[in-house]
Amino acid sequence: MMAASILPAILVFILIFMESQITALIVSKKERMLVKGTGFHLDLLIIVVVGGVSALFGLPWLSAATVRSVTHTNALTVMSKAVAPGDKPRIQEVKEQRVTGFLVAVLVGLSIVIGEVLRQIPLAVLFGIFLYMGVMSLNGIQLTERLILLLMPPKPSAYLMHLFTVIQLTCLSLLWVVMATAAALAFPFMLLLTIPVRMLLLPRLFNCRELQSFS
After folding, report:
1. Which has the closest alpha carbon to 189: 11, 22, 21, 20?
2. 79: helix, coil or strand?
3. Does residue 191 contact residue 175 with C-beta atoms inside 8 Å?
4. pLDDT tier, 80 (very low <50, low <70, confident <90, very high otherwise)
5. Is 102 exposed, middle or buried (0-12, 13-18, 19+ CB in 10 A)?
6. Which three-class secondary structure state does DSSP give residue 77?
7. Which of 64, 100, 104, 121 could serve as a FRET partner for 71 with CA atoms 20 to 30 Å apart?
8. Percentage of the chain modeled with pLDDT above 70
9. Tens of pLDDT along 173-211?
10. Are 18 and 66 in contact (CB under 8 A)?
11. pLDDT band per the 50, 70, 90 thresholds, residue 215
12. Rounded CA gap, 211 and 197, in Å?
């Protein structure tokens, strides 16, 4: 029985690792100018250790919580106020701290004992909060910006960027289809298949400079 758990364990490892790394890449973009970048390595170590201990006692695993993490970072981001007409506000700084993250963890723990109070919140309100967090977390993500550019008048110089966006959107759609069907257990393996696409297919279509600017 223990040997049979190897395959599910590998799938869970892939999911948690990829979610943590993707979240770290989104949050620690160069534009944010984060100083405490090594904190992400510490977070990954804590997730691994606590995840192993939780598995022994049947407790839920930790994850990076992409939407919540991106929304939290956006809330701590200070945008420049002195902006020239026609220019977009730029990131001035990010208030890097762990107080709000700690408070969120405490409140999540308290949800166990205040379940009766939380049940009084209408589901429509909860769905509205989740929808707002999801939409707001899309701000600043390069894929979202490039998808918006697809709806704008085309420019000859933007052809390669649109091609990259279409390929990325196709991969994302395939992952969503797999996740929404009975083959959802194979989602981690499908996620790994995007690595050959990135390493073998894309270099044939784009040069290194273009890949760095689009990624």
Report:
1. 11
2. strand
3. yes
4. confident
5. exposed
6. strand
7. 121
8. 91
9. 888 888 788 777 777 777 778 888 888 888 888 777 777
10. no
11. low
12. 13
Please, what's the b/e burial string for 146-157 (b: 16 or more CB within 10 A of its CB; e: otherwise)? bbeeeeeeeeee
Q: Which amino acid is at 130?
A: F
CA–CA distance, 169 with 167 (Å, rounded to integer): 5
Radius of gyration of the chain (CA): 20
Tens of pLDDT, residue by residue over 17-42, are: 877 887 887 788 787 888 766 677 77
| Cα 193 to Cα 14: distance, rounded to the nearest angstrom | 12
Confidence of residue 162 (pLDDT cuts 50, 70, 90): confident
Q: Which residue has the tokens 């989602």?
A: 187
Q: What region, left, alpha or beta, does residue 58 occupy, with left being phi > 0 and alpha being psi -120 to 50 degrees?
A: left
Find where tokens 């929304």 sit.
71
Q: Distance between CA 152 and CA 83 in Å, rounded?
A: 24
* Residue found under tokens 């364990």: 9
Q: Please report the DSSP string for 114-148 in residue order.
A: -HHHHTTS-HHHHHHHHHHHHHHTTTT-HHHHHHH
